[in-house]
Design a protein that fits this description.
By secondary structure, the protein is mainly α. Helices cover 72% and strands 0% of the residues. The longest helix is centred in the middle third of the chain and has 46 residues. It starts with a helix and ends with a helix. The model has no long low-confidence stretch (mean pLDDT 87).
Length: 179
């Protein structure tokens, strides 16, 4: 049915839009701006049955997109939860190695800071002695630098142990998921 045939009736009775519950029937106002019925923008050659069919197809496509978006969000949340649980389990599994690694890294930072301080003080003393033309020169004790090197080696060893433990955890995790 074309809109021009229906528009001549000047009544909403028998309108396919009203029967499909797309339109509420005429102008409505609920205390605000009037709500136009969809037929206000139709031209005379608009096929109402085709328009209703296209409307429901668009509604169905919109609902499918919304459902897909909700499913994707649920999958994303599930993956994030699974990843967080895996990280938590891995940290628990490797806690001794992680504790040792963190402890050694803190000790290394402290020792490097002490070495930088001693080096700065030695430079300041040497500059002062040079300024006053004293022959004495001060150097950083080798045991301070040796301690930094020793801690560096221990940190590298702790990292290797931690990485090995992580690989062991992930291997066990894969074996458990395949079993």
């Amino acid at each position: 049915m074309l809109w021009k045939d229906f528009a001549e009736k000047e009544s909403c009775d028998g309108c396919p839009l009203l029967e499909s519950e797309i339109c509420t029937g005429g102008w409505k106002c609920y205390g605000g701006e009037p709500i136009e019925p969809p037929c206000c923008c139709f031209d005379n050659n608009t096929d109402l049955d085709e328009w209703v069919s296209n409307y429901w197809k668009q509604q169905l496509a919109r609902e499918e997109r919304e459902d897909n978006r909700i499913r994707e969000e649920a999958k994303k949340k599930e993956r994030a939860k699974k990843a967080a649980d895996t990280r938590r389990a891995m940290r628990l599994y490797c806690r001794d190695e992680l504790y040792e690694l963190n402890r050694l890294q803190k000790a290394l930072k402290a020792q490097e800071a002490a070495e930088r301080l001693v080096s700065s003080l030695a430079d300041a003393i040497n500059i002062t002695n040079e300024m006053f033309r004293y022959e004495d020169r001060v150097t950083v004790r080798p045991n301070i630098s040796a301690e930094v090197d020793r801690l560096n080696a221990l940190v590298m060893d702790a990292k290797e142990k931690y990485e090995a433990k992580r690989k062991e955890f992930y291997t066990k995790q894969k074996e458990a998921s395949h079993a």
